[in-house]
Amino acid sequence: MGFEKFESIIENIRMSYIISKKNKNIKGRIKLDGSKSISNRVLIIRALSGEDFEIENLSTSDDSKAMLKALQQAQGTSATIDVGAAGTTMRFLTAYLANKSGEWILTGSERMKQRPIGVLVNALRTLGAEIEYLQQEGYPPLKVIGKKMKGGKVEINAGVSSQYLSALLMIAPVLQRGLELQLKGDLVSKPYLIMTLRIMNNFEVESEWLDEQTIFVASQTYQAKSFFVESDWSAASYHYALAALGESGNVDLTLEGLLEDSLQGDSVLPEMMQDFGVESVFGDKTVHLSKNANIPKTFEYDFVECPDIAQTLAVVCAGLKVEGSFGGLVTLSIKETDRTAALQEELAKFGISFKEAQDDKWILTFPDDSSIEGEAVDLIEVKTYHDHRMAMAFAPLAMIRPAFAIENPMVVTKSYPAFWEDLEALGFEVEGFVR
Question: By CB neighbour count within 10 A (0-12 exposed, 13-18 middle, 19+ buried), where does 371 fall?
Fold first, then answer.
């Protein structure tokens, strides 16, 4: 058999997991991985500081591994760096390498080549960066000819991705004149921007809001010091979903590594999930979850500041038969997949409607009185679209639905490598099969 034919056969073999749970009890203790959002920011800052320091509870996700590898490759003066599907790595590295002497090729997965980066590149070019598009205008791969940039003023559209803003702000202290960042339009995912500024301040870099749309960071020096990475609230959302779908009085779950005074926007979860009967009690870097009988009649939320947990809440509403109105989903179409379209497609397999309304909100309803519950005649397989959050958001439905399958389940390694092992520790049955 020729190699090309063998390769084709391998590509058509798909691994899936059948997920099931015998009861609605959730009891155990889970140590969550460090936040990849925080980890990748601290890794960039460590590189910019020029000194080594300890990072405790660093994320083991694919994205953080990609960042570590890329920064090692960038220690020389030239390299081709493939970040795979790691969006934060692509964006943060583009800014980092633009100010580092050398010549670099930045590339990634096929999906990465479809994710826009023109807003960031234009801002960096305004600051003096030399960056070329190697294929499609406005998208990776990029050729970056790095050099020390002077800095100054730059305007940027704040309504596309906060990662562009964070990428610029983190290199601001090492620019000769610092950076005055003027934000145009409504800011999306503001908590991620605040996270960046707070982490920078931890390393003795000061920033100033000149007005509501302008941030100034003077030229200064990052001070190396050890750092504890709090665990990932996005990952915690899937365990909150388990608790919400669990049986009242039979949820006794402790999550380790989470802080009540968190840097992460997704830490709104305890307040949000209280409406679904989930009670949160904080301890020393822990939160304990229990469940009462509360279930809301309807759910409405604007996810503009916490878009990564929108999928989780959509599936929770689906499982509990709660009609929902979801706002602030504008950035979901440029993630690992078009997440709103993916949710629409996969929820429809369970007879649930997820449609965009005229006011830019997405509405979740139950046509013909459909429900996740009930006997499964056919084995439903949820597609993941190479998106880790699709796999993890849908998995908790095993609390409600008789066994169903999740395609390409190992996509979870992008942000939460131990996800399936943690589910098994909580009493889920996870069985692999090949199609």
Answer: middle
Q: What is the pLDDT of residues 145-185, one digit of tens each?
A: 999 999 999 999 988 888 999 999 999 999 999 999 999 98
Q: How far apart are CA 150 and CA 198, in angstroms?
A: 24
How many structural domains compose the chain? 2
Higher per-residue confidence, 254 vs 162 = 254
Residue 232 · residue 415 · CB < 8 Å: yes
Indicate whether 308 and 366 sit together in one domain: yes
232, 266, 308, 387: the active-site residue: 308
Amino acid at 142: L
pTM (2 d.p.): 0.85
- Tell which of 198, 228, 258 closes a domain: 228
Residues paired with 142 in a beta bridge: 106, 133
- Neighbouring residues of 231: CB distance < 8 A, sequence distance ≥ 6: 31, 32, 33, 34, 35, 57, 255, 256, 257, 258
Q: What is the CATH number of the domain that holds 82?
A: 3.65.10.10
Same domain, 239 and 198: no
Over residues 76-90, the pLDDT tens digits come to 999 999 999 899 999
Range of the domain at 357: 3-34+230-434
Question: What is the DSSP annotation of 16-42?
Answer: EEEEEESSS-EEEEEEPPBPHHHHHHH
CA distance 207 to 174: 13
How far apart (Å, rounded) are the C-alpha atoms in residues 124 and 21? 50
Domain-ending residue, one of 228, 260, 293? 228
Same structural domain, 427 and 285: yes
Q: Are residues 170 and 89 in the same domain?
A: yes
The DSSP output letter for 312 is: H
Known active-site residue 62: no
User: Two tokens at 165?
Assistant: 């803003």
Q: Would you say 138 and 114 are in contact if contact means Cβ atoms under 8 Å apart?
A: no
Half-sphere exposure of 279 (CA within 13 A, CB side): 11
Read off the pLDDT of residues 201-242 as tens digits, 9 standing for 90 and up.
999 999 999 999 999 999 999 999 999 999 999 999 999 999
